Amino acid sequence: MTFGQQPQRNGNQPQQFNGQQYGQPQYGQQYYQQAPQYAQNQGQYAYAANGMGGTATMDAQMAYSYEEARRVSVTKAYGEMTIGLIVTAVVAVLGQMTGAYYSFIMATGLIGIIGLCVAQIALAVVLGARIMKMKAGTARVMFYVYAALMGFTLTSIFMVYDLGSIGIALGITAAFFFALTMFGMTTKFDMLKAGPILMVGLIVLIISQVVLMFLQVDGMTQIVCALGLVLFAGMTIYDAQKTRALFAAYETQGPEMIKKISILCALNLYLDFVNMFLYILQLLGNRD
Q1: Residue 11 phi, psi (nearest 5)
Q2: Per-residue pLDDT reduced to its tens digit, 48-88
Q3: Are 266 and 84 a contacting pair, CB within 8 Å?
């Protein structure tokens, strides 16, 4: 993959889900307050009311437990994404320091670059399409291998941009990504409804980049980079909300399923971060 060709997202992913609703404690409390009026003549009604109050308390505790487990799962997905980014950064730096990437390109030429692209796309497609049928450990290994291949490919940025530009772009991306994630998690706006629009925008972006590979138009590269940055900013908010929705839908299917969903969400968030980083670097970076 030559620099400027963005890693793309895999479309074969589970559909979005809405969260489940749980019983509210107010119902049991209200019943409990009314029951003593009947218990003056029939004590069993008071006992029944007490039982309903206990059921409501159990429902509230269950709802809290699910919400807490959901928060832990979302945190785990972002943790997996962070590890993937660290793997990418380490491999990219080592590829530059050891000269491994340069040697690889000299030995394989265009075939090597195409091979890297094919391997990354194949891993992303298989991971997105088959993750529900594979073990969580296998999915995690595939994700880290994908991150390592991405890091080896991104070694090329050291040949184009100076270290200062790379560091600034990385810092801006991290701050931007954090702000977008917090907005996605706290806003009442349902970004999941914008999914089809974002996918159409992604397709248009890919086509535009392919065209620019063959046609050099002054100023068009900067425009496409700006549009790409806006698109993946929207994708970041979308994936933040989708991560929460997926965990809400699969939280009752056991720890193994939650681990798989964590890897899938981590892959989506990872791609959002990497794409935003590359677009910001192209817009603000100083070339050597």
Answers
A1: -85, -10
A2: 444 545 554 555 554 445 566 667 788 889 999 999 999 99
A3: yes
The answer to whether 9 and 271 have CB atoms below 8 angstroms apart is: yes
Cα separation, 167 vs 281, in Å, equals: 9
Distance CA 266, CA 277 (A): 16
Element (H, E) at 268: helix 255-284
- And the tokens for 253? 């299917």
DSSP 170-202: HHHHHHHHHHHHHHHHH-SS-GGGGHHHHHHHH
Whole-prediction pTM: 0.76
Rounded (5°) CA angle 71-188-199 = 85
Alpha-carbon Rg for the chain, nearest whole angstrom, is: 25
Backbone phi and psi for residue 187, each to the nearest 5 degrees, phi listed first: -70, 150
Return the ∠ at Cα 197 (arms to 194 and 202), rounded to 5°: 120
